[in-house]
Amino acid sequence: MDWSYEPEERFKRRRSTGIWKIVAVLIVIVLASTILIALCMTSLSPGEVAVVYDPLFKSYSGPYIGPTVFLKAPWQGLIRDFYTIDYIDMTTEARADYPPVTALTRDGVEITIEESFTYSIDPNLFMDLAKNYPRVDYEEQVLVPIMRQIVRDVTASYTIEEVISNREELAAKIEETYRRRIENDPTLKAIRLHDVMLRGIRLPDRIKQAIEAKIAAYQQKIAAEYERERILTLANATAMENIITAEGEAEAILLRAEAIKTALMRIYNATGDLEVLRIYVLLEQLQRVERPILIIGGGATPLITIPQSEDNRTGR
């Protein structure tokens, strides 16, 4: 028998087995690498910002601003947030983020003030924000509580009447104070405030009723003043009309007397007879008598008394 082929056959088997082992190892390495890369790969969508922290070395890296993809070790953590504009609503609406602020005025009246504000994050300063607020709870821990405190402090310097009449001033003072507090807070350097708005002021029912009563009384006062002015205007118009009428009548009497005087002078100058003047005057009077009369001439006394008209009785 020829045994020379056996060592060669064994060598081929061992070689084939080694190759398969190497291939298996390579496959395992590739799979493990793929899984590891998949576990280490992190992606951020548009509007997101993130910071990576390493609990072993107690270090931070970033910020990473989306949209982007980066790698981190499996043991490393990730702090992420949106840096786009966020709207915070502190009102009584059903979908509000937080309830409104209850505050006391200087004269002890409890009112409810509704506020809202918008803010965004500077992504380049997000690492500082993440170090101070690793749970990304700066909104409920700082932004909203500061707003509540400022609203109460500012409201306490106004009476209820000043709050109602100086709403714009109150809103401006709240906004100014809030902006200054946020800008001066060293832990909130990444926060950028945009709009701060006073949405509404809710008064107690008794204050509403008092205001409504005051408005009603004021309206009645205005109506009374209008009626008084109307009556005075009508009275003045009537008085002016009477004055104008009286002045017209007086002017007419003066003109008539002047005409009679001129006529008498002309008659006397023409005749030189006083009897003619008397007859002329009598005729002028007869023109103003309402019913005829009987007169006996020759200078005798009339049989019937000459009736006088209303003008004669009043001396006009």
Features:
53% helix, disordered N terminus, alpha+beta, 8 helices, disordered C terminus, Tetrahydropterin Synthase, Chain A, 19% strand, single chain, 316 residues, four-stranded antiparallel β-sheet
Summarize the entry for a quick read.
The protein is α+β, with helices and mostly antiparallel strands and 316 residues long. It has 8 helices and 9 strands. Helix 3 crosses helix 5 (167-184) and helix 6 (205-271) runs antiparallel to helix 7.
Structure description:
This protein is α+β, with helices and mostly antiparallel strands and 316 residues long. Among the domains are: 18-78, no CATH class; 83-203, Tetrahydropterin Synthase, Chain A (2-Layer Sandwich). It has eight helices and nine strands. The strands form three sheets. Strands 6, 7, 8 and 9 form a four-stranded antiparallel beta sheet that branches. The chain has a three-stranded antiparallel beta sheet with strand order 3-2-5, with helices on one face. A hairpin with a 5-residue loop joins strand 7 and strand 8 (110-121). Helix 3 (138-155) crosses helix 5 (167-184) and helix 6 packs antiparallel against helix 7. It is rod-shaped. The N and C termini lie far apart (182 Å). 14% of the residues are buried.
